[in-house]
From TrEMBL:
It comes from Ilex paraguariensis (yerba mate). Residues 25-284 form the Sulfotransferase domain. Keywords: Transferase. Belongs to the sulfotransferase 1 family. Its EC number is 2.8.2.-. GO terms for molecular function: transferase activity. This is Sulfotransferase. InterPro entries: P-loop_NTPase, Sulfotransferase_dom.
Amino acid sequence: MGRVLVPPRFLASAMEASSSFVACDDDVILASSMKTGTTWLKALIPCIMNPNSGGECSDDDDDPLTESHPNMLMPSVEIQIYGENSTCSVSDMPSPRLFRTHLPYPTLPETIKTSTCKVVYITRNPKDAFVSLWHFLNTFKTAEEGPAPIDEPFELFSNGVHPFGPFHDHVLGYWKESLKRPEKILFLKYEEMKTDPRGEVKKLASYLGRPFDKEEEVDEVLWRCSLERLKNLEVNRKGFDPWVGAPKSSYFRLGVVGDWKNSLSEDKKDRLDEITSMKLEGSGLEL
Ligand code: PAP
């Protein structure tokens, strides 16, 4: 897998997924680098694709989000499907199947690229993605240990040592492909979703071939998938993700654009901004 860094315990399953997963034409694949707002999409996409179960105007009883953490609704190809404790069988999944992946574009299973399945990519300002990751990693620390100092993870992130490959390379891989094949990859930014959630969710639904008929449906889906609602659902408040071992609640934190300001020094901000402008130069992408 080239120089892509995969957490050691997921290396075998990531390689297996990369070489063995066979996509169907009507699959939807959600791709992202870590901590870019994927969980919002893990809720939105199932809601849009299955409007009769928790989508438009149905009550909480029919809403899969009240029963399952969003990680369950869009299982990860490299961790949940091919991982050691896999409980998901791809062949039993009803169509259209919904998956997510953190694999970088070059290592995506070939049939994801060659079939007509749709890929939704979400990204975010690297400073916010890094700070979100740091908070997430701290949820593995005990109260006695306290949060890890930010310097070391910052050095690693800045040097491209990041789960599933350097952040900027990950984004650029999908960005370049989305320019070549906009019908294949919908490229979304977390900041734009926060600024114009209605517009972005309508764009997402149209791309998925499930445009909304009524404005009320958009409101309903946005409410069902809102951070405030998901954070407070019983199913997301207690227990641990069985694959990664993280508290289920750790996928829902602040959701604020620019939260990096509360954790990064001016020096760190300048360093990451410099790396970002150097990496993205000439790509037409701004983060
Ligand atoms: P993952 O890579 O482990 O799947 P991911 O969901 O991409 O994580 O990132 C988590 C971020 O999305 C958190 O951001 P924060 O740390 O800056 O707060 C989390 O709060 C945010 N998030 C999760 N669910 C939602 C949602 N429904 N709406 C908006 N933001 C959300």
